Amino acid sequence: MTCPNQSPQHIPAPDAAASGSLPSAQAPPVPKRTYQAGTLLYTKMGLVGVFFWLLWGGFCLRLMELVMPALLPLKLKSAHASNFTIGLIVVSIPAALNMILCPIISTWSDRHRGPRGRRIPFLFWPTPFITLFLVLTAYSTDLGTWLHHVATLHPGLTLSRAWAILIVLGICMVGFQVFNMFVGSVYYYLWADVVPQAFLGRFISLFQFAATGGGWIWNYYIFGLASTHMKAIFIGIGVFYFAAFMLMCLRVKEGRYPPPPLMPRGHGGGAVGMVRTYFKECFRNPYYVWFFLSTSLFNMASSTSVFLIFFYRDTLKLSLEQIGQVLSWTIVLTFLLLIPAGWICDKLHPLRVSLAVYAATSVTAFLCFFGIHNERTMLIFLLVAQVPAAFFLAANLPMYASLLPADRYGQFCSAQAAFQSVVMILAPPLAGVFLDWMGNYRYAFFWQAVMTIPALLVLLLVYRGWHRYGGAKNYVAPPVDASAAKSHQRAPEL
What we know:
There is one protein chain. The protein is an all-alpha fold and about 500 residues long. It folds into 2 domains: about 1-10 and about 35-255, Up-down Bundle (Growth Hormone, Chain: A); about 265-470, Growth Hormone, Chain: A (Up-down Bundle). It has helices spanning about 45-80, 85-110, 120-125, 125-140, 140-150, 160-195, 200-220, 225-250, 270-285, 285-300, 310-315, 320-350, 350-370, 375-405, 410-440, 445-470, 470-475, 480-485, and strands at about 10, 35, 40. Strand 2 (about 35) and strand 3 (about 40) form a beta hairpin. Helix 1 (about 45-80) runs antiparallel to helix 6 and helix 5 packs antiparallel against helix 6. The protein is globular.
């Protein structure tokens, strides 16, 4: 089903004048300007239409993806889970699933050909299951209590109510994450297939605005209600996401794609050969490995953010409503900074901006560690910390696009996600143990400040390699094919 004002067409489009000669007295119609993305052609209104539906989808996706990481720690804490368990369920298990599923889903989607394209089916079919697990999470306490009651009816089964609730929450989290991996991976690939290349940069900027708007609505209006209406939030967001995202899937139309490339044949042939080729291409060059490591270490540094809600609530004694309102002001600052941050990234290069972001993030985390003592100082120092965070939003995706090979962009993004997942499986439980040892959630900021430093040092190695491969004016991503690599003028080893 196609939106009426989206007007995508397959090319080559028939020439109106080719079917016959026009009467001499009739002036030929002025052709409308069109914009091409693959085999899709858009009029100006059609381009507005596809932008609207994709941005609407991004807004709904952002709102939905905030629910689990924001509210699940509170539900786990109420079930008397340790910090180790919270880090394991909220971050480590999703990271493990990401490491396993993202390369599979990305490759599967690249090769899929169907009536609705190669991306939309991977967004459409998982959406009902995402909603289902959000609703089940809303009723996790009731389901856990029922499971505990069933266990007490069987002699020899000992299952406390708290453990029963934790089991239900763990199952809901795994189920949610499995299906959300399809949407969270493929939605970002859809852009490159349906948005004309000349408008992709502007679309990404608008997407950041839409996603940030979803975050602001969450923090200002919804999060503060979690202490009294948590069940309603899970159900409401789940139902809203289902209706809104499914509408986007029905409105956005993909074009036609060429047949998928043949499966690579490596040692062992077939799937084994494809896996060997994947790892050789992605991890043979140390330059790419340094890039994967630096971005992964930076995410490792932020792994304690899941515990900050307990610092604000239990140490500073703030209500969830107060916390949400303070965080909403940081999002307002992000709105104001995104446009100048994007302009600076274009002028200086996103890699240079990312270096400054990494350094500033460490400094501002130290400031938060020493300076936050009440609601007022929380607002002040979180606003300061939000400045590098806003520049990170503006620089991160462009940095990926500017450094990774364009012809294997999805493949290398999935390799980075898998690499990062290995780090994120270990980091949150270790951070939880660290916070248990320190006995103060304030040290979540200290962890971030210290752990960002090695990420910065490794990114400096990437920066040196970037210069050797051409720098800002002449950069060419190192080839990944063995034959191309031999003929390529290799940069010196890092």
